[in-house]
Amino acid sequence: MDLTSTQLGLAARVQQLTKHYGNVENAVRALDDVSVGIRRGEFTAIMGPSGSGKSTLMHVMAGLDAPSGGRAWIGDTEITGLGDKELTLLRRRRVGFVFQAFNLVPTLDAIGNILLPFALDGRAPTAAERARVDALVQTLGLAGRLTHRPHELSGGQQQRVAIARALATAPDLVFADEPTGNLDSRSSRDVLQVLATASREHGQSIAMVTHDAVAASHADRVLFLGDGRVVADKPRQNAEQISRFMLAAEGALPAGATA
Predict the structure, then answer these.
(1) The domain spanning residue 87 has which CATH number?
(2) Residues 126-149 pLDDT 10s
(3) Is 19 exposed, middle or buried, given 0-12, 13-18 or 19+ CB atoms closer than 10 A?
């Protein structure tokens, strides 16, 4: 009998995953027979050259994109083949997202965006959840901007609102796509510390796609992708080690599908 994700100590996983784009004659293979898991309570960085498939992997693992072949699970629930309604409910209650494009609601102010996951679930935050939100707001330096709408915030402030929203409900699993891409170095450190704390102190599983070696050095584990495959799976690395590996990989690996 196959082991469950829980028995394997995984918050999400994919098995023999493939993803193709385009028609049969001109198919672009973004992922090629990938089997990998995100461990519970661990901060994982996903890296690779442009076109390596890292963003595609995250989108399929998060249930935002359907695979061409293979299987995917969030926790013990196989998401391959789930209907839209079931998948939406599963994501809403168990997964947090930080997108490159922020995806903030323009008509809501910052605190409205941060509390949106509760509103979508049809409930108000508990006292403990509100205390967590307040702590996130303070840590991310948003206390003075809560009544501002997205167009009144800088790109970095919008990103921090998106991160607070992703962590507000303390989801088991958080996917972050280049979460420090629009931040200065100090704000980046604050955000990475928040993600690391969510993992180490609160047992949340964080999967972060990044091209930034310094950001990846905050993670417990670094997955390297190349040409649609996992080419290395390493424990915590410093920024210099990560940069050295990336330079070697980019020199040795052919260009693949769009990441």
Answers:
(1) 3.40.50.300
(2) 999 999 999 999 989 999 999 999
(3) buried
